[in-house]
Structures are given as structure tokens and as C-alpha cells.
Task: structure prediction
Amino acid sequence: MPVDPVCGIELDEDLALPHEYKDKKLYFCCDGCRKLFIKKPGKFKKNI
Result:
């Protein structure tokens, strides 16, 4: 199961919001977490 790199929640891949980052597909629990990551990806790189 994928984990949201912003909040750390385990996600169902079918229900999560996907986002491509450096040729890697990431998944987010909500648009808020996705937007936080897009704004400052370096802050969450250790969680990828």
C-alpha cells in the first residue's frame, strides 16, 4: 500500500490522488497534501 509522503497515512491506491515526481508515482490522501508537496517537495523528500 502506498503512503502519503506528507501526512504518512497508508492509502488505497485506487482512492488516492496520484502525482508524478521525478519519474516516480506518488499518492496523496487529499488535494491539500498534494498541493503542499507540489509547493515544497524538498521538505518531504525523506518520506518518498
